[in-house]
Write a structure and sequence with these properties.
Shape: globular
Order of helices and strands: EEHHHEHEHEEHEHEHEHHEEHHE
Oligomer: single chain
Strand order of the largest sheet: 5-4-3-6-7-12-9
Radius of gyration: 18 Å
Distance between the termini: 41 Å
Strand content: 25-35%
Number of strands: 12
Number of helices: 12
Length: 279
């Protein structure tokens, strides 16, 4: 269970997400809830992600060397490799990587810290990092500087972080987290993230909001129940989206074609993808 609170950080509003104090802390505990047998379902599900798929095709150099910084099991690394990129994954969690390597034996998955990556400067044509830098309580700046370092001049960063959308502004409130709660992540306004990305010597090329169903299902009771019916509950409370066996069923179509239409995504997106070119 998470507590979502409104915070003011300098001139910018943010949301702070805190985990329940009774939950086990750390990414290894999070990833340990899944099994290698879950990975094919994740790959099948994310293959059908039209919004991110179009963004990758638009901004990543065809056949380029691409890093996913914070790859977890490596399911996106596997999909990018399928699509012709020379893809490498890096993650901080040995548990996630061990599970990923068990199933994805031909995918290049490395252990490392996004703040001190084991690559030379300019090693990649593009870097993808989805839902990673928001987990630093001190802010994303150090991670952005290291991401800049490993991208070649003119290369692309595709960075996604939780978005303080108009819907989230209405639903959030200033409050105090329960004693003992663990910081989980920030949600940022696009103005703040654009400023921080540009300060790290990138030029913004485009913004893509996505994940409106996450915000709406958190805040609207009937959609919360629909989300739970569309999910498989894993031990420990983790949620794994069911993947279609072949063609997407009506639930997947409803989720992607109705709840992810552009106007709704701008009003209620859970995540914002920032496409930025290294200067």
């Amino acid at each position: 269970m998470q507590t979502i609170l409104r915070r003011q950080v300098g001139p910018h509003a943010r949301l702070a997400f805190f985990d329940d104090p009774h939950e086990e802390e750390g990414w290894d505990a999070e990833w340990a809830q899944y099994r290698a047998e879950d990975i094919p379902a994740l790959i099948e599900y994310f293959r059908g992600d039209v919004v991110l798929g179009q963004a990758f095709a638009r901004w990543l150099e065809p056949g380029g060397r691409v890093l996913e910084a914070g790859c977890g099991f490596g399911y996106w690394v596997s999909i990018l490799a399928e699509r012709g990129y020379r893809a490498v994954g890096l993650d901080y969690s040995p548990v996630a990587l061990r599970t990923g390597r068990e199933r994805l034996r031909d995918v290049d998955l490395l252990l490392g810290n996004i703040l001190r990556m084991p690559f030379p400067e300019g090693a990649f044509d593009g870097v993808v990092s989805l839902g990673v830098v928001e987990h630093f309580e001190e802010g994303p700046d150090a991670a952005l500087r290291e991401l800049w370092r490993v991208i070649r001049p003119g290369g692309m960063l595709l960075l996604a972080v939780p978005y303080l959308s108009p819907a989230r502004r209405i639903a959030s409130r200033p409050a105090v987290a329960e004693r003992g709660s663990h910081f989980h992540q920030w949600a940022f306004t696009k103005e703040e993230m654009i400023g921080r990305i540009e300060a790290a010597r990138f030029s913004i090329a485009g913004l893509v909001p996505y994940g409106a169903i996450k915000t709406l299902s958190d805040e609207v009771g009937v959609l919360r129940r629909l989300r739970d019916r569309m999910s498989s509950r894993k031990p420990g409370g983790a949620t794994l989206q069911k993947a279609p066996a072949s063609a997407p069923g009506w639930k997947q179509v409803f989720r992607r074609r109705v709840l992810e239409v552009a106007p709704l995504r701008y009003l209620a997106a859970h995540m914002m993808l920032y496409a930025a070119r290294r200067r």
